[in-house]
Fold these 2 entries.
Entry 1:
Amino acid sequence: MIELVKYEIRNGVAVITIDNPPVNALSPGVPEGISEKVDKACEDDSVKAIVLIGSGRTFIAGADIKEFGKLAAGKQANTDGLHSLMNAMEDAVKPIVCAIHGMALGGGFEVAMACHYRIAVPTAQTGQPEVKLGIIPGAGGTQRLPRLVGLAAAAEICATGRKIKAGEALKLGMIDELMDGDLLESAIAFANARAESGQALRKTRELTEKLKITDDDRMAIDRLKVAVGKKARGIAAPLKAIEAVEFAADHSFDEGCKKEKEIFFECLCSDASKGLIHVFFSERAVGKVPGITKKTPIKEIKQAAVIGAGTMGGGIVMNYANAGIAVTLKEADQERLDKGMAIIRKNYEATAKKGRLTTEQVEARMALITPTLNYEDIADADIVVEAVFENLELKKKVFTEIDAVAKAGALLASNTSTLDIDQIASATKRPEQVIGHHFFSPANVMKLLEIVRGKATSDETIATSLALAKKLRKVGVVVGNCFGFVGNRMFGPFNHEAQFLVEEGAKVEQVDSVLYEFGMAMGIFAVLDLAGNDVGWRIHQEIKDTLPEGIRQPLMTEPLYEKGRYGQKTGKGWYRYEPGNRTPLPDVELEELVSGAVAKTGIEQHEISSQEIIERCLYALVNEGARILGDNIALRSSDIDIIYIYGYGFPAQRGGPMFYADSIGLKKVYEKVCQFESDQGERWKPAPLLKDLAEAGKTFGEWDRER
Ligand code: ZOZ
Ligand code: NAD
């Protein structure tokens, strides 16, 4: 049996080491192990004090999230065991010193708070990130933390879930001392000193000083509630965490823990928590790609180049500079190059104005960017990322030019949104080093990177791209090569369905508000106006001759383009915009344009319900997602979920479109898709995988696990 908690005596101190890689989560066996070892130390007369420490890269990163499903279903002992452990630690007759390196998060910091003293290395981080999983601390965190840091600070920490660096944790009172040098040796010395001092042991749960609420605290908590309420979007946990912390002000510790437990289980059983936990594991699954192992060679990227200083090129350059990688920006045109560089500077300066960068950091990042009009200047780059106009012939020409100058072994990536990576690769003599790096707009903000593998792309190129994504602080998802890859291929039917609803009588702002209420970051028409309706028109020009006969196409692509309604950039699109203001405003002119286009067809307008908007827009996504899985373009349904959450603003608390479909039930989704097919025609033909799973009573999640 693997021993998850180890015990040794060093210099009169019992050292209890949690050894549960990779992050020392409180998996079954760990709390029991700590409890047993604390008892053992207390019974041993040769032991004067106790040190609790984590082995490997971290202290305890929290409860074992894999166990939460069982906990919610009541199939596993509840949290009482953890509460008993923590009370027993506080009641121990010998000082317990918690020695923190890496992370002490969630249940990990709750264990730390039950120790009499906490010391940490300067690089350590603490926090109560449970709200990010849709829950609140469940092992006394909402009651012990305010006793250490005060009610207002505890409410803020529990409601935001942010990580707190050791320096701030010290100032707040979460830890007692920072230690340079060897943590274990320092902790042993600290523990011996506490034992020798003979002072009474400090039990966090008995502290009351910081529970007195001042007017300032009250105001801070009220402000926090407003801020958190605005961002909640259907996730109850942040406000509930504040409620639990506030309860500590005028209730005993035990009453507080009882209240916390009620709220913890209420949140744990919520749909939002199920969705967010699914996202946690899905985000970590994307890095697991068949054929790519720890042994697959990875190229080091020290120098990059980007071709094209437009909307995307500029954002991509910023990603490299932010990661400390020198990057050359090559344009075809001096004016555009100057404009691109000026926008990059303006973006950095705007961030500095918000206090998130210093002037020196802005200059350091700008200094990493070298503008040029000459291909020779990209010869030293380890990676070249192309971001020129979306036109296959132009991209092929540009790739031939890059191939001629780029050094041997350099990766050649295209930021194309839709085009065939194999065709682009065929313009070079090194197709194995060609790959899609599909960033999402705004490229310096959105976390997704679709990594598109062509038929010749080598494992080394893929592994390097995955490692690079992490360095650029993106979530890299490997997908196959087809028109639009995963994200944009699904966006097509989603976008079309939204437009059809408007043609059939829904208002643009009605569709957007239903999608926003569902949890999307933005309504789809607001997104289209942001991306540019001219871009959609251009893509349409590329594919219009290849569209299948008899499939309904949106009516508004040409009229919007002809009228210059490109979106925000021209002050009008699906909405109108006041000069200098990005708020979308409903526009009668647009409505007239739609009515005019619809009048030439047989479409009869009628009232459209919110339910129809949700079902048609979301099931269009799901049906295409199922087709993509059947075509082996995405590895897992959970990869699609991550793509939609990080690339398209899909609400994380819904778990992504495929998880959402699972939560509705695939039988119900399939039946609705069949009904749409009979009402609306062939575009709603159910994907074979959706049909198979619905008939077998299975979910996409089960399909992922069975592969
Ligand atoms: O992994 C990063 C992280 O942020 N982890 C989650 C931290 C967190 O949310 N902690 C709070 C958990 S909830 C809680 O603690 C509730 C509570 O109050 C107790 C209530 C009682 C409940 C009763 C219990 C039944 C971290 C920052 C730690 C490390 O990041 P890295 O980027 O270095 O590494 P990752 O994220 O790739 O992780 C490595 C592997 O570890 C797995 N993992 C991480 N945290 C876990 C966890 N598995 C289970 N539980 C956790 N808390 C992660 O999935 C990954 O696994 P592989 O297989 O993909 O390698
Ligand atoms: P853009 O029109 O803003 O910029 C393209 C730039 O490429 C222009 O500045 C142009 O001067 C430059 N260029 C053209 N030919 C060149 C050459 N031979 N050498 C150097 N520079 C050249 O376009 P964009 O929106 O940045 O899109 C670029 C690519 O990114 C396209 O493939 C597009 O499909 C893709 N993309 C766009 C978005 C988006 O939301 N805009 C999102 C993801 C991907």
Entry 2:
Amino acid sequence: MRRREFVKQLGAGSLALTSGVGAARTARADSPYAWKMVTTWPKNFPGLGTSANKLANLIGELSGGRIRVKVYGANELVPPFETFDAVSRGTAQMGHGAAYYWKGKSETAQFFATVPFGLTAQELNAWLYYGGGMQLWRELYEGFQLIPAPAGNTGVQMGGWFNKEINGLQDLKGLKMRIPGLGGEVLKRLGGTPVNLPGGELFTALQSGAIDATEWAGPYNDLAFGLYKAAKYYYYPGWHEPGTTLEAIINKAAFEALPQDLRAVVLNACKVVNLDLLAEYAARNPAALETLRSKLGVQLRRFPDDVLQELRRISVEVVAELAEQNDFSRRVYASYNAFYKTAVDWSALSELAYLRARDQA
Ligand code: CA
């Protein structure tokens, strides 16, 4: 610190440029902060894994090399679903995943990933950044020695891959489907069996018949896993994940060991990737969908209206029950729900009204 203050003082005088350059070079050679980032994704997986890589590179670039982040794919350092614990105990300084994977730690965490029939990506970012969501998320993770940051969003996902058509609610009964988070609970109440599996295990599970159906993300990611080879019907919309936030988690002690400027670098790099990944999905999904549809013979299906209506009714019930679990959950629900009401109202007059007009014109 003393040395940094000294450099800063010099910065005010005529030697600013040379001192600054010298300081940067020294720091790069030292690389004082060598961090590990564990992830829930297969290494380099399009969109998800590559956004973790982008985040690591960006932190390196913006810090002038003072922080070096090495990314580990699922199972390289720890199994995918141990990402949270690994960063919490400091085995790694950072992690990249999604908050609904940690519902075993806190059911309330799911609000920060996605809620069935809840906020879209744009609305969720609005709640997190400007509606009090981040303060609540930070408060929750404080107990785990973690600092959370939104670091990617998938946008509205697809409903999933099925080996049979879903013509009514009876077709969901007995269905063993990989579907994480609150959506899984909704399926359970309709007689299905939700399973939570890390992405890397989906194809084999579906192809071997260990599960009957799976959702993953959207055309871009689902094509990359080859899910079309294991199931014929591709359903929409992704009622259960209307805009899922991917999260970066940072070990609190590691974060607090950083000087102020590097803390800003880490958090703002997350913000860049949060925006960047949403744009990447919006750019890649349409082309991937076209490939699935016209080259690979995938059958697209929309969930029937009565199925969606019942899924929505039960979703509201499940989310309200989650809110009753404890005081903190009640506070998160109250904040989310208040924001949701105004967001729905505004979206009806803006995005929705526009999209309808565009569709009909
Ligand atoms: Ca998903």
